Amino acid sequence: MANSFVVAAAFLLAPALGAPAPAPQVNDPVVFGTDSQISASVQPSTTGYRQEYLEDGYSSATYHGPYTGTPTTIGAADGPTTLAASIPALPPNPTATYYNTEGVPLNPLPAPYTPAGGLGTNGTLPRYMVESDFDFESIALGLYQEWIELDLFHDGLARFTDAEFDAAGLGDEARSLIEFMANQETGHSTLLSNMLGERAPAQCIYDYPYTTVREWVDFMQRVTRFGESGTWGFINHLDSREVAQLLSQSIATESRQQLIFRQMSGLTPMNVWFENGWPQSWAWTMLAQYISYCPENTTRLAWQNFPTLRILNNANINRYSPNDTAQDGSETVGPRITDPSISNLTSGSCINLNVTGYGCGPAIAHNKSEPLSFPGKKVLFQWDAPGLPVGPNNSYVTSTTAGAPKFVGWSQQLNLTYSPLTVTGNNTGFTYQPRGYVYDNEGIINGTMAVMLTDLDLFVTPFNVSLLNPHIVALGLYQAG
After folding, report:
1. Which of 64, 70, 116, 426 is the most buried (most CB within 10 A)?
2. Rounded to whole angstroms, how far apart are CA atoms 72 and 397?
3. Are 244 and 129 in contact (CB under 8 A)?
4. In terms of pLDDT, which residue wins out, 80 or 213?
5. Which of 386, 379, 402, 377 is nearest to 470 (CA)?
6. Beta pairing, strands 58-61 & 52-55
7. Which uninterrupted H or E stretch holds 154?
8. How far is Cα 360 from Cα 268, in angstroms, rounded to an integer?
9. CA dist 7 to 263, 321, 474, Å?
């Protein structure tokens, strides 16, 4: 990264965060190939509480790895009975008829400067506790998320050496910022525990996929994506408006964390007009894969675990030509949904490349001369059958109620759009990345986003996207930009 600021295409490029620019790779490429290397089509070990150790002033758990025991409980939490196979789609609420053609208050003001309406505005003393099973299960999911982030953010600081951080372009100040974000999770987990009460889930033991600083930071930008989107999806459905208020003040911090981890990964910090909201089961599907052990009698969750959808040619964020990413899934560090891109490339790395439009070291922002994805890109899929053990103590089971997959759902910004799936073999297939716009010329598909195989191209909107769950065959994470 150059030491001066460069303005290009209305984005500000800057030096690496908190560190001098790393030395460039020995053989800097000076000629870059075409963007069409990929097929395309023009489109319209413990079950108790964790123990800690200190290394270089940072703390982490004594064990991170897979579960090796035998589960004593199987399946999601369940209630006394289940009333229906799915929630039916209904017409609009007949009382939702307010429309203001005057531009002034239409009803008497209950107090000076206080327009009529709103929830929780009648002076009742707030109660900052969950008010329903929906609230409890949603906030418990949020607490599982805060616990893993508390451990995850600390783990890399303790696992990697100063030299490894410096080689990744992250100096002392960047590490200090990550430590502060880890400490934020202490406050978040305390808040959510207090709103749940005595059955709040405890912290668990985790199994992480990364082996380098770059992979750790990339993994964190993916984890915070499903943490943030998984909260936006349910927050306005909570019965307790008081809980929603405090949760929104927590998740606003999470969105800043995701932006910062994108910057540290060499990605554009924000490339969408609207952040996307996901149902709880999408977030739980992604999160559960990284939980190894939980303490005995830890509160279980009621949310679904979908089968894994792998994007075999998910763009490697560490390549200066992302479309040269291998087509067989070998440039993702593992088979789990949000595993990061491999960083130890033998050629084609953008990490220490000081060329505007191609470098991807930590920075305030980067322009990409070759995008990570584009409309018409052929996207290759492989997906699991249901019925696999997953999650804490391997005690949850992946499931689906959908029929045969026919469509690919792309969930981003204010939209959920579809493209046709072509099945090529046993749980393999492809589609072409669709073109679509939110408003004006703002493309729908960008950033770190959810994709899924479905048996139906059901029309859903941000407030009722969970109606799609019964039609999801498998769920994945797409690195579009």
Report:
1. 64
2. 13
3. no
4. 213
5. 402
6. antiparallel
7. helix 133-159
8. 9
9. 17, 22, 41
